[in-house]
């Protein structure tokens, strides 16, 4: 029964009772109505309330027949018309509201499109309000206070100081009301000699004993002729080969910079060098001629003695080593040590374009190198806290920062850890006090053993690879965020990053961080992207155009960073934290993930066009191969456009619909990992961003070798690699297409 009172001029006009129940005699067509004004006349009642308890003839009101007088018929018609008009207006208003409700933004749609809040879902807070709340909560003053709390003169991985800082981070997460946990690993790392030292001797000069070292170097003593190899890049060694210089058994002198220490050593090993000495050239570094460098030379990430699986306690595996461990000794030397050697070298002049006035070195310029690093096992702890989402709590973005350092590590770890903790506090406060309701979760992670090659982060990825690949949709790296001009990310995130940077410009921040660049292997975000298939990003801001030069030294202090940034460290850190926070919050705020699938379409087409052009120039490879790769590339493009269409035609008010679409978006990066290679042998399986023979770049390089008739080139091997890369790309397109009946089976 539904009762309605119509009121005109402030007075009740009539009360109409409707009965929509089935007539007791079985007549489904009869709907009877009794106007309260007439009932009152019949029973002598005094108003709406009286007729609820009086009935003159004893029959229920719902079965009393309405008297069909002209007056009553006119009144019935008027009431019916009025009800129709009201119903029409209500329906029209509801329909218009649905059309104009803010819709979630997604990369596959224009950024400003949004979806109306669905029943049972977290209501959308206005995005401008979310940004404003973050700016209010995350301040330079708060971060500056955190600097003093998380600073230590020394906190090498696994040390008591590292554990102390980890417990402090954990307690802060608990104070914010977050769910917390820690992840314990027992990892093998290489430290400098416990007694004695590493040594170098040039000819008959006094021996030098550098204090710096390179973890995971090959140990032993070697003697060979010195050879200057610039930055130790592959192109540098090609120039030396073009000058017909014998590189076999040589001790390479290379400058720090351009590429990682591990890549320099790996490149030297390829040309059969006997050892590598790395130094900071004064043209690149103004850190003092006696400043030592620290780092590692594992061409990979994580514990190299448990490649592809985690270093949990008491795990028993047969002896195994990462394929990225070098066999030759490698050692850092100071600028002063290097200068003494360089100015005494003989041999040929430097190739054109190489800086310097010294020679390359000849067979008489002998150097003895002795490395005595020792392998030790350390217990490390990763620390986590989570702000849970209200709709898809099991889908999360991870924000992480390295906690350990070789020395003070103020820029390397203290700033990132402070921003991590303050960002966690800010988001927690927004949820608890400001009414912000994230749809998905945010995991805050404090890593240990980052200086040894992202060991803590990689061990976590290896331990939970299957679940993380399905549920973590992004990683944001906070390491070294105020030390230079750097921005690297998965192409899926480029549009979101560009939008966030534009917003920062509008807010008045002047940040020298312009171009997107390839992500390097020594970046903690790299294993998330290339090993686990999780879209990732890393960035660095600075107040000037020059980069901070004290990373990897014992002079990485607050005073040095203040001098490099005109004492603007808290302000820069707050800006960097807001930038990272805005990206994370956007990913957990909107109904659909802002991942631009079209960006990878461009990357794929660029690589395919390059490979196809080279295939045409190689006689030993059939041109028919081109059609396979072109078809797979086209399949990805069609699948990405199909998803856009699916989004436009879907009811995004529905939670399950959004979840299905988001899962399809999340599968893209993961499905670029080649399923045909072992993560133990080649951990970075991404065919576009990884390293190894399975990548599209490796195919391009192999074609160059075939064209040049390089004896190491193999046409049959190329066709095998080509087929696997092509099907990996097609498999990604198939997964993106969604349902099995939507697949493109052109290949």
TrEMBL record:
Protein family membership: Belongs to the peptidase M28 family. M28B subfamily.
Keyword Transmembrane helix assigned: yes
Segments forming domain Peptidase M28: 382-499
PTM annotation: Stearoylated.
Species for this entry: Nothobranchius furzeri
Name of the protein described by the UniProt record: Transferrin receptor protein 1
Gene it is expressed from: LOC107384335
GO MF term set: transferrin receptor activity
Complex formation: Homodimer; disulfide-linked.
Transmembrane segments: 73-94
Keywords from the named record: Cell membrane, Disulfide bond, Endocytosis, Glycoprotein, Lipoprotein, Membrane, Palmitate, Phosphoprotein, Receptor, Signal-anchor, Transmembrane, Transmembrane helix
UniProt record, GO biological process: intracellular iron ion homeostasis; receptor internalization; transferrin transport
Annotated Pfam families: PA, Peptidase_M28, TFR_dimer
Annotated Transferrin receptor-like dimerisation domain residues: 609-736
């Amino acid at each position: 029964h539904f009762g309605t009172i119509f009121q005109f001029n402030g007075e009740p006009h009539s009360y109409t009772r409707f009965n929509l129940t089935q007539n007791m005699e079985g007549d489904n067509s009869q709907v009877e109505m009794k106007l309260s004004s007439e009932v009152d006349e019949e029973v002598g009642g005094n108003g709406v309330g009286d007729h609820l308890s009086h009935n003159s003839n004893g029959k229920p009101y719902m079965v009393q027949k309405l008297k069909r007088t002209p007056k009553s018929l006119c009144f019935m018609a008027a009431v019916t018309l009025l009800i129709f008009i009201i119903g029409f207006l209500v329906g029209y208003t509801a329909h218009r509201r649905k059309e104009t409700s803010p819709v979630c933004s997604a990369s596959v749609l224009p950024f400003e499109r949004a979806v109306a809040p669905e029943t049972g879902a977290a209501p959308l807070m206005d995005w401008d309000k979310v940004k404003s709340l973050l700016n209010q909560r995350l301040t330079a003053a708060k971060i500056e206070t955190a600097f003093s709390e998380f600073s230590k003169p020394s906190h090498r991985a696994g040390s008591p100081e590292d554990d102390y800082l980890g417990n402090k981070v954990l307690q802060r997460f608990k104070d914010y009301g977050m769910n917390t946990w820690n992840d314990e690993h027992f990892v093998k790392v290489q430290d400098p000699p416990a007694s004695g030292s590493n040594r170098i001797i040039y000819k008959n000069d006094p021996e030098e004993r550098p204090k710096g070292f390179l973890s995971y170097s090959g140990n032993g003593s070697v003697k060979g002729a010195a050879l200057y190899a610039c930055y130790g890049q592959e192109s540098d060694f090609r120039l030396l080969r073009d000058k017909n210089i014998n590189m076999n058994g040589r001790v390479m002198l290379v400058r720090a910079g351009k590429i990682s220490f591990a890549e320099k050593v790996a490149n030297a090993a390829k040309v059969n060098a006997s050892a590598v000495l790395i130094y900071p050239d004064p043209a690149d570094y103004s850190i003092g001629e006696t400043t030592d460098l620290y780092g590692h030379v594992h061409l990979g990430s994580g514990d190299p003695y448990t490649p592809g699986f985690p270093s949990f306690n008491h795990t028993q595996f047969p002896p195994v080593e990462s394929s990225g461990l070098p066999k030759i000794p490698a050692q850092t030397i100071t600028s002063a040590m290097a200068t003494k050697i360089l100015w005494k070298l003989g041999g040929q002049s430097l190739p054109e374009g190489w800086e310097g006035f010294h020679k390359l070195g000849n067979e008489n310029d002998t150097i003895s190198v002795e490395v005595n690093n020792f392998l030790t096992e350390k217990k490390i702890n990763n620390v986590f806290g989570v702000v849970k989402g209200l709709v898809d709590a099991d889908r999360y973005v991870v924000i992480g920062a390295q906690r350990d350092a070789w020395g003070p590590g103020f820029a390397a770890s203290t700033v990132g850890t402070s921003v991590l903790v303050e960002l966690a506090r800010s988001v927690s406060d927004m949820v608890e006090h400001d009414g912000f309701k994230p749809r998905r979760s945010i995991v805050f992670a404090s890593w240990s053993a980052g200086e040894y090659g992202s060991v803590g982060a990689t061990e976590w990825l290896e331990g939970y690879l299957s679940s993380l690949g399905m549920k973590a949709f992004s990683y944001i790296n906070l390491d070294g965020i105020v030390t230079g001009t750097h921005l690297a990310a998965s192409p899926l995130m480029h549009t979101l990053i560009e939008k966030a940077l534009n917003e920062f410009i509008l807010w008045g921040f002047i940040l020298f961080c312009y171009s997107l660049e390839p992500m390097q292997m020594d970046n903690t975000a790299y294993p998330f992207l290339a090993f686990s298939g999780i879209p990732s990003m890393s960035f660095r801001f600075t107040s000037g155009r020059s980069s901070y030069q004290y990373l990897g030294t014992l002079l990485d202090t607050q005073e040095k960073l203040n001098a490099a940034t005109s004492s603007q460290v808290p302000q820069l850190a707050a800006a960097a934290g807001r930038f990272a926070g805005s990206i994370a919050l956007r990913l957990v705020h909107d109904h659909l993930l802002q991942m631009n699938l079209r960006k990878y379409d461009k990357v794929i087409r660029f690589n395919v066009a390059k490979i196809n052009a080279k295939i045409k120039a190689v006689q030993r490879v059939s041109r028919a191969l081109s059609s396979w790769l072109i078809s797979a590339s086209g399949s990805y493009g069609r699948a990405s456009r199909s998803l856009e269409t699916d989004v436009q035609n879907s009811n995004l008010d529905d939670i399950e619909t959004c979840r299905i679409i988001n899962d399809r978006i999340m599968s893209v990066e993961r499905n670029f990992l080649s399923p045909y290679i072992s993560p133990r042998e080649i951990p970075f399986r991404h065919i576009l961003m990884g390293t190894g023979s399975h990548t599209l770049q490796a195919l391009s390089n192999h074609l160059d070798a075939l064209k040049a008739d390089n004896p190491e080139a193999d046409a049959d091997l190329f066709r095998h690699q080509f087929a696997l890369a092509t099907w990996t790309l097609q498999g990604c397109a198939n997964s993106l297409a969604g349902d099995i009946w939507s697949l493109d089976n052109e290949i």
